[in-house]
Design a protein that fits this description.
The complex is a heterodimer of chains A (267) and B (274). Chain A is mainly α and 267 residues long. Chain A is 76% helix and 0% strand. Chain A has one domain. In chain A, helix 11 packs across helix 12. Chain B is α/β, with parallel strands linked by helices and 274 residues long. The two termini of chain B are 35 Å apart. The chains are: A mainly alpha (267), B alpha/beta (274).
């Protein structure tokens, strides 16, 4: 019986196929969100508590020197980055869950490369995190915190959050490829989240940190995300080009390593 | 010219550490054929399937799908595959249509044809009426049919079904097999299925391959294998009897290899093999 075989695209056509499949996975994540938006609301509780309780208390103490910027305004971009981190860092658990449910094996048998799947998940982390930008900005407005109203700057902040979330989601999926076990990954996720958060400039400026913590902050992509968010939302001086560049390289490296390790999960 | 077989396995061996899950399996499946890979749990069926689907790399031996090398041409092979895994695995947070549409996109079904092809696959699996419901609300049988729709939306040349009826009630099982048979008749695709339900394989497969402890014990049509075992004492053996005969509990791997072979048709051949 003659069989008409389909051949995989070659050369430059592979790039088109990769982009279409990334789009397909990204669309699926949006479709999932559209069926259950309650997650977006419940995820707002934590950043709201940070701003309302921690932020208001520390702004009264006046112990953290933030220059001309009120502490609550200084804190708001940090809280956006923090909540995006908390969303993204558990994407590895989701992919292990997909593995355990048999979904990952089925997808890995399709012509979709691992990088398309990883990018789709990273995009999903970004979309969920973008909702945090909107939510924190609404809370900040209600609390009288002055963040920018410039739509271009707000869109820029959303793009920065997408990049940061993509990196941390990929970091989590890379760890999933290494440890391959949901419980172990949960422990590692909890163990690294707080150090990443505290070794960044989300809560306090780098200038008040001890030297060893400054070094950690300098290699922590979360610090670059917070810097870029402060520059965009508050107009504080900074090197946004460098910040975005670091986030882009970190996200690309993250996609590469997570994709390379993904096949280990289904073996 | 001899047509290219749909599946060619030559001396396939797969190990997990010290454990040999698949031991020197040689098997050929012709295009358009339905082959059942039978065996109890742990026989090595799923390990064979994982290699054929390119999910697991070929460790030892050679595997070709429509002449394509499973080591080198993985992406070409994947474009021509439909696969339903053992586990019920759908995105429960998506609708039935969205689940199938994802696979249409991943297999590059052209945009203009996509809606029609998704409808066709859902309709063939009798899920069109519930296509807009969340897949999480589907029964086990419906989920399995949805997975078949996903596997068929790209009109694969080779459909691989790994224990597709495990955990389903008899009515749902019948439903799945009848849909598979209909699609096979319509598109003439090659089907490889694994199951440990012998009666199902007997009814559905052109040939069956019996596996036990990673070793292929016998290959042949259900009719030929049963005829070969028929005797005055047991004039009408079932496929299960055939399996027991070849997989007898005290068979060593070496004995099994001696037993291995394509059982063509005659009782004499079967006697030689035993």
């Amino acid at each position: 019986m003659p069989v008409d075989l389909i051949r995989a695209p070659r050369g430059i056509r592979r790039a088109g196929g990769l982009l279409r499949r990334m789009g397909a996975f990204a669309l699926v994540e949006l479709q999932k969100l559209s069926h259950d938006r309650s997650e977006l609301i419940t995820r707002m509780v934590q950043p709201a508590l940070w701003l309302l309780i921690f932020g208001q208390t520390f702004s009264r103490l006046h112990v953290i020197d933030t220059g001309n910027v009120p502490y609550l305004a200084f804190l708001a971009p940090g809280i956006i980055a923090q909540s995006a981190l908390f969303i993204s860092i558990f994407y590895g658990i989701q992919i292990v869950w997909d593995r355990d449910a048999g979904i990952l094996a089925k997808l890995m048998v399709t012509p979709a490369p691992a990088s398309a799947l990883i990018t789709g998940k990273a995009f999903a982390a970004g979309v969920r995190s973008v909702a945090q930008v909107v939510g924190v900005m609404v809370i900040a407005y209600l609390m009288g915190i002055h963040l920018t109203a410039n739509p271009v700057r707000i869109l820029g902040a959303m793009a920065v959050v997408v990049l940061g979330s993509a990196f941390f989601a990929c970091l989590s999926m890379t760890l999933a490829g290494l440890v391959r076990n949901r419980d172990r990954l949960m422990g590692i996720g909890q163990a690294i989240t707080m150090p990443l958060f505290f070794a960044s400039n989300a809560l306090y400026p780098v200038e008040v940190m001890p030297q060893w913590l400054r070094w950690l902050s300098a290699v922590n992509p979360l610090s670059y995300e917070v810097n870029a968010l402060r520059a965009l939302l508050l107009g504080t001086p900074g090197n946004t080009l460098l910040d975005v560049g670091v986030l882009l390289v970190a996200a690309a490296l993250g996609v590469f390593t997570a994709s390379t390790l993904l096949r280990r999960l289904v073996r | 010219m001899t047509p290219t077989p749909a599946i060619e396995c030559r001396h396939l061996t797969h190990r997990y550490g010290d454990f040999t899950a698949v031991d020197d399996v040689t098997l050929e499946v012709q295009a358009g054929e339905t082959l059942g890979l039978l065996g109890p749990n742990g026989a090595g069926k799923t390990s064979v399937v994982r290699v054929l689907t390119t999910l697991t790399p070929v460790q030892h031996g050679e595997v070709r799908i429509f002449g394509l090398d499973a080591r080198r041409d993985t992406m070409d092979i994947r474009h021509n595959l439909g696969y339903v895994p053992q586990q019920l695995s759908i995105e429960s947070a998506l609708t039935g249509r969205q689940n199938v549409d994802l696979f249409a996109r991943l297999y590059d079904v052209p945009r203009k044809q996509r809606r029609a092809r998704v409808d066709e696959a859902l309709s063939a699996m009798q899920l069109l009426d519930v296509a807009e419901n969340l897949a999480g609300t589907y029964s086990g049988g419906m989920v399995r049919r949805l997975e078949l729709a996903q596997a068929l939306v790209n009109r694969p040349s080779l459909l691989i079904l790994d224990e597709p009826t495990v955990g389903l009630d008899p009515i749902a099982r019948d439903g799945v097999w009848s849909q598979v048979a209909d699609m096979q008749a319509e598109y003439g695709m090659t089907v490889l299925l694994t199951t440990h339900y012998m009666e199902e394989a007997d009814a559905l497969c052109d040939r069956v391959a019996l596996m036990h402890h990673g070793v292929l014990r016998a290959v042949g049509s259900p009719h030929d294998l049963k005829s070969a075992l028929s005797s005055d004492a047991s004039p009408d053996p079932t496929l299960e009897d055939v399996f027991r005969h070849y997989a007898g509990s005290d068979l060593t791997a070496d004995t099994a290899r001696r037993h291995l072979g394509e059982i063509r048709s005659s009782r004499r051949a079967a006697r030689r093999a035993s």
